């Protein structure tokens, strides 16, 4: 009797760790930094990098594994992904490969009786909410990085501040929307990000996104910036579809009315009201896409 978990320890982990250590070294990390990222000793990193650890060829040649290694190496090397997020992604990959990939094949080879069993071997949900939540946080971090490298963005931040938010696929409340705690502010012409992305920290901007989705939009992210007529024209010239909503009406009703007139709108704006600052909201598929739209305004 051989459990699939034994194959994970004996075959997958040495192969995966050696590939990831190699990829991180190629991206300029030192052996000490790689050891810290992988939670292993520096001597173990040396063995992985120098090929002193046996690797499973079938696992090495699996596209899913190679893609994961490249994505994790990029994320860890740039700081766009935490070690916890990398671990979750690796765990999900393992469960997928156990269910119907190379690990399932290796298990069947090790225990031929498995072939005679016509059942399911999935014991974990690869589409878990935890995974989606970590992906959303990582996505907002990438979007913020784009904004931090957009010199013209601070001047577009309204007096009330900006926020960049992204929601889960099945979002219903602001607790399902990740954003920046507090607000994005311009201080002496520099963008200030007060903290790491969290769920449930954005009230108004998250509410705009949820209202748009409730009205039929498939957007997963939005960013608010200062409104001006020229900006609307520029965005329209770039292929965006803009629609105005009533700043003084109930938010859900106002956005539903606006989108009923322009269902494919990717830009929502209001021109102000009593005690209400004019603001424009850019909608998009994810946080980096929205941030890129803003960055491209200055190109």
Automatic annotation (TrEMBL):
List each copy of the HTH cro/C1-type domain by range: 20-51
One MF term from GO for this chain?
Answer: DNA binding
Which regions form coiled coils?
none
Q: Which InterPro entries match?
A: Aldolase_II/adducin_N_sf, Cro/C1-type_HTH, Lambda_DNA-bd_dom_sf, ThiN
Per its record, how is this protein called by name? Helix-turn-helix domain-containing protein
The species this protein belongs to is: Halovenus carboxidivorans
């Amino acid at each position: 009797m051989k459990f699939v978990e034994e194959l994970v320890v004996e075959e997958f982990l040495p192969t995966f760790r050696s590939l990831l250590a190699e990829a991180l070294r190629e991206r300029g990390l030192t052996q000490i930094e790689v050891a810290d990222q992988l939670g292993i000793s520096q001597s173990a990193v040396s063995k992985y990098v120098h090929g002193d650890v046996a690797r499973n060829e079938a696992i090495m040649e699996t596209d899913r594994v190679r893609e994961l290694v490249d994505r994790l190496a990029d994320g860890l090397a740039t700081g766009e992904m935490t070690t916890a997020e990398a671990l979750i992604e690796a765990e999900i990959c393992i469960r997928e490969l156990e269910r119907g990939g190379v690990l399932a094949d290796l298990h069947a080879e090790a225990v031929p009786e498995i072939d005679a069993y016509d059942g399911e071997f999935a014991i974990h949900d690869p589409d878990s909410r935890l995974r989606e939540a970590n992906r959303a946080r990582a996505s907002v971090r990438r979007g913020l990085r784009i904004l931090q490298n957009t010199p013209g963005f601070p001047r577009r931040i309204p007096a009330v501040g900006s926020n960049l938010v992204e929601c889960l696929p099945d979002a219903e409340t602001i607790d399902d929307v990740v954003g920046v705690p507090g607000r994005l502010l311009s201080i002496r012409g520099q963008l200030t990000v007060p903290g790491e992305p969290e769920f449930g920290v954005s009230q108004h901007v998250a509410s705009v996104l949820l209202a748009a989705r409730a009205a039929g939009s498939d957007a997963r992210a939005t960013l608010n910036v200062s409104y001006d007529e020229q900006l609307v024209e520029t965005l329209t010239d770039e292929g965006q579809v803009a629609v105005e909503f009533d700043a003084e009406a109930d938010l859900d009703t106002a956005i539903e009315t606006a989108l009923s007139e322009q269902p494919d709108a990717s830009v929502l704006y209001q021109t102000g009201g009593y005690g209400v600052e004019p603001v424009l909201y850019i909608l998009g598929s994810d946080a980096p896409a929205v941030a890129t739209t803003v960055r491209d305004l200055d190109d």
